[in-house]
Amino acid sequence: MKKLKVLALALICAAFSPVKADEGMWLLQLMKEQNLADRMKAQGLKMDIADIYNPNSVTLKDAVGIFGRGCTGEIISPDGLILTNHHCGYDAIQQHSSVEHDYLTDGFWAKSRSEELPTPGLTFKFVERIVDVTDKVNQDIKDGKVTEINSFGAEYLDKLAADELKNSDLKDKPGISTEALPFYEGNRFYLFFIKTYSDVRMVAAPPSSIGKFGGETDNWMWPRHTGDFSMFRIYADKDGNPAEYSADNVPLKVKKHLAISLKGLQEGDYAMIMGFPGSTSRYLTESEVKMRMEGINTPRIEVREARQNVLRKEMAASDKVRIQYASKFASSSNYWKNSIGMNKAIVDNKVLEAKAEQEAKFAQFAKEQNNADYAKVVSQIDEYVQKATPITKQMIYFSETFRSGIEFGATYVLFNDLKTALQKNKKKDIEKAISSLKEAYADVHNKDYDHEVDRKVAKVLIPLYAKSVPADALPAFYQTIQTKYKGNYDAYIDALYDNSIFSNDKNFNAFISNPTVKAIENDLAVQYSSSKNELSKKLNEKYDAVSGNIDLLHKTYVRGLCEMYAPTPKAPDANFTIRLTYGNVKSYDPKDGIHYKYYTTLKGVMEKEDPNNPEFVVPAKLKELYATKNFGRYALPNGEMPTCFLTTNDITGGNSGSPVLNGNGELIGAAFDGNWESLSGDINFDNNLQRCIAVDIRYVLFIVEKLGGCKNLIDEMTIVE
C-alpha cells in the first residue's frame, strides 16, 4: 500500500492571469483566483462573474445540472423544464417507444402536464455546494492517514465525502450526496454536494429525422443541420424535495432558470458554456498519446465497426430490432467515429510533434530548476507506456468484445451461489439463489435484447477477438471450441445460444424446476462466463503489475508543467464536474480554399434531403413549413431559418446538452458536438481549428411551436426578443 505524498510546493496552476481565452474547462470556484473576469469581459461578457457563480447566492450555476448518466441539461422555465440534446434523451425516447408508439420515428409532444411520461431510472442532478478540501487532504497525507491503493486515495476520498456529509447542515436533506475528487492529477481536491431528483418525465422530442438528421454521416462534421434537442421536466414532492415517482408529485419550482434570447448572434459575439465535460487528457506525454492511438482507439474502432455492421443490417430489416437497438447503436457509433477522427487529427494536427516539443522544454526547465524529480519523470512515464501498451490493447479488445459487444451470458457468481447451496442442501439458500437467477435471466432477456441478433454479433466478434490478441489472452472457452467443436466457431456459438440454461424460457424453466450441480457444471454459458471472469482478473493483475506508481508520476509531471507555464494558468483535465468555458461565435478555414461560415439554415436541410437514405429523410411537415416560410418570430432578418452555429468553446463528451450563453447569460443554443478537424482536442487543444457545434435555440423553439404544436411549452419560458 502506497502513501500519498505531501505537496512540497504550492499549486501554481491556479494563481495567475490567463493569456489565451478559448482553451480551458475552468473550475467555477477558481474563476476569481485565476483572474478570468477581465479576459471574459474583454471578449464580450456583460454580466458580473458573481452572477455566474457565487457560493453564497443563486447564480447561473443553479440552472445547470447532470442529465441522466453522462450529459448536461439546463432549466428553461420556472417549472423545472429541462433542455438537453436529443441524443442525450435518446435512451428515454427509445424506452418509451414501441412499434405501436414509435416516438423515435414520429417524435413526442406533450400538450399538457398530464401527457408527460414518467421515465424510470432517469435522474437530474444539481451541484448544491463546492468545498475546497485540499488542505485537509494534504494534512491527512502528512499525518500518514492515507494508505490507499492509489496515489489519489480513492477509498480515503469516499470516506472523506461521507464524513463531510455527516458533519454538514445538508446531512438530512432529501436527495443529497457527496463526492470528493482529485484535480490536477491529485494536486488539488474538491468536495461536491449533489442534489438528485429521480422523477424526471419526458416532455418533448422531435422525430429522429430532425433530432438525428445526418446520422453517422454528419456526426462530428460541419456544416451541420441537426435539431439535436429534447425536453424533460423535473417533478418533486409537494415541498419541492426529491422523491421517487408518484402521481402526487408536482413540477419542481426551481430557484433559477435561464432566460432565452431571440436577439440572434453575429460572428465574434461572446459565447460561454457551462456543463459537465467528461474526460480530457491534455497532460499526456508523447508516448502516452501513441498508446491512446494504438492501444485504445485502434481496437475500439475494429471491434465496434464489426458489431455495427451486424446491427445496421438487422435494424434495417426489422422495425422491432431497429427500436430495440437504436440507443445501443447510437452509443457505439458515436465514439467509434470519434476514435477514427481522433487518430486522424493527431497526425494531421501534429500532436505528437507538439508533445515532443513540450517535453524538450520541460527537460530544459527541470535542468534550470535543478529538480531531479522533474528531470526523470518523462522517461519514467515512457517506461510505463512500453510495458502497459500491450496489456492495455488486450484489455480494450476484451472490454469491447465481451462487455460492450456481446450481451448474452450467464451470471457466473449467481450460478456458483446456487451450486454451493445445492452441495450443502440448504433449502433457504437454494430458494434465494434461484430467485436471484430469475432476476438475472430477466435482465438478460429484457425488452431491448434480441437473442438472434446477439448470436450474429457473437459469430463475428468471438473469431475476431481470437485473431486480435495473443493466445494467453484467450478465455478458456476457446479451448472448448478447438477441442469439442474442432475450431468451428459457428457450431460452438449455436450450441451456446441454443442449449444453455439462459438461452430461452424453456431451458431456464426446466432447470429451475430441477436444479442440479451437474447441469451447472456442464452448461456452456456458465463455462463461458466463468472463463471470461477469470481472464478479466488475469488482465487486471497484469496491468496492476506494470502500472506501478504511474499516478504519482502524473502528479509530479502536471505540477511541473504548471510551474513551467506560469504565469499562464492551466485548467485541470475534465472529470465530469461542473466547468465553464468561454469564447466567441466564429467561422473557420479547415483547409486551403475552404471556408466554413459560423451558421447554417433550414435551406441546408432541404439541400441534403435524400428520401432513399434514412439519415437524410425530411419530415413532410417540416418541408411544408419551409415551403410556406412559416418561421414566426424565429427567422433571421433575411427571412431564413437558422439551425446550428459554431463557437470556439472548449468542450468534450459530457458537455452534450450544455447551454450556450451570450454575454448577458441568456440562452442562445445547446452544445452537441465538436468538429472533425479538431478531434485531437481532448489531448491537445488547437485554438485555430477547435469548434463547438450547437443547435440554435431559435430552431429549437421553432420546431417545438410550429412542428410539435407545443405553444404551451413556449409560454412557460422567459424569452427575450
UniProtKB/TrEMBL annotation:
InterPro entries: Pep_S46 (IPR019500), Peptidase_S1_PA (IPR009003), Peptidase_S1_PA_chymotrypsin (IPR043504). Keywords: Aminopeptidase, Hydrolase, Protease, Serine protease, Signal. Its EC number is 3.4.14.-. It comes from the Bacteria. SUPFAM superfamilies: Trypsin-like serine proteases. Residues 1-21 form the signal peptide. One of its GO terms (molecular function) is dipeptidyl-peptidase activity. It is an enzyme of class 3 (hydrolase). GO terms for biological process: peptide catabolic process; proteolysis. Catalyzes the removal of dipeptides from the N-terminus of oligopeptides. Belongs to the peptidase S46 family. This is Dipeptidyl-peptidase. It comes from Phocaeicola coprocola.
